[in-house]
Amino acid sequence: MARQRDVDDQRQRLSEATWAVLTERGLPGLTIRAVAERAGCTTGLVMHAFPTKDALLLHARDLLHAATRLRADAAEAAAATPGQALEAVLLNALSLDDRSADEARVWVSYLAAALADPTLAERHRAGNRSFVARVERLLGASRPAWSAERIRTEARTLVAVAEGMNTLGAADPETYPPEVQRRSMTDALSRTLGPADAGRPAAPDPLQAGGAGLSIRPFDEADTEQVVTLWAACGLTRPWNDPHRDIARKLTVQPELFLVGVDTAGAVVASAMAGFDGHRGWVNYLAVTPARQGHGDGRALMHEVEQRLLALGCPKVNLQIREGNEGVMEFYRTLSYTRDAAVSFGKRLIPDA
């Protein structure tokens, strides 16, 4: 068992190194030597797992497909209706933050490489067809009276808008920033389904603050799986942080500062885990389901967190943002948070994995 765990850990480390090289250097820079340097191992170890560069390329493509599929699964599971799930899955395909922008650049690189490589082309087509099938299924569930041919046609149109916006956003983010991509996608979906219906409320203007239809309350243990799904959809989970253990620990310390936001159907669509140590307040796991991002839910949650911390006499709130996540940094700047002249250190006392 220990040996298998070592093998799994080694492959995970190589996978993370592969992805890091791809996002930093692009497809031309993805070499066995570059992956070895990033992973801090020998080229022989990399070649033991991936004997050729083609094997490495296919593995990296599978990593991208697996990551996007898991987030789409989580976004779909968090939705209350097929229409809301369809919108969440389509928005999940856009480059709306730093992580998805990295993925979009890698995706475009693979698309270009697939034009001259039959094996990569087949892997790319399989991934695209899987996405189309998901959209067809959700569209059919939203519009059961439609013919199969209409569902196929409308689904391909929606996928074309999503992947087109994703590609353009990767190539020209100034012309196609996240708000333009989001609005283009929701407009296309409104033209397909109608501006609003019982299965899919009309999307609020992403430039307006609000959090319309959001109710904020303390976390309940019954919310656990919805919250873990939400965190996965937002890319907050990491192999070294078990979300179930994080929740269990929080419920033993100031559980009243673990908040969730629920929509009008009662589904958990947002979360924030706060705490006060007597000196500083801290905020972790601020998350808003992708379909509602940009609508004011995060702002509303942070306001509630700040009010609860202030009532405890908290003089200042601290939080941590992963380096390079400019979209999240800008969000906090709009809430009057500023970057401290400090370096974050950490030490793991209890391993989760």
TrEMBL record:
PROSITE patterns in the cross-refs: GNAT, HTH_TETR_2
Enzyme class: transferase
Domain HTH tetR-type: 8-68
Residue span(s) of domain N-acetyltransferase: 214-353
Enzyme Commission designation: 2.3.1.-
Record's protein name: GNAT family acetyltransferase
Pfam families membership: Acetyltransf_1, TetR_C_6, TetR_N
UniProt xrefs under SUPFAM superfamilies: Acyl-CoA N-acyltransferases (Nat), Homeodomain-like, Tetracyclin repressor-like, C-terminal domain
Taxonomic source organism: Herbiconiux gentiana
Binding region for DNA: 31-50
Assigned keywords, A-Z: Acyltransferase, DNA-binding, Repressor, Transcription, Transcription regulation, Transferase
GO MF, one annotated term: acyltransferase activity
InterPro entries: Acyl_CoA_acyltransferase, Bact_Acetyltransf, BetI_C, GNAT_dom, Homeodomain-like_sf, HTH_TetR, Tet_transcr_reg_TetR-rel_C_sf
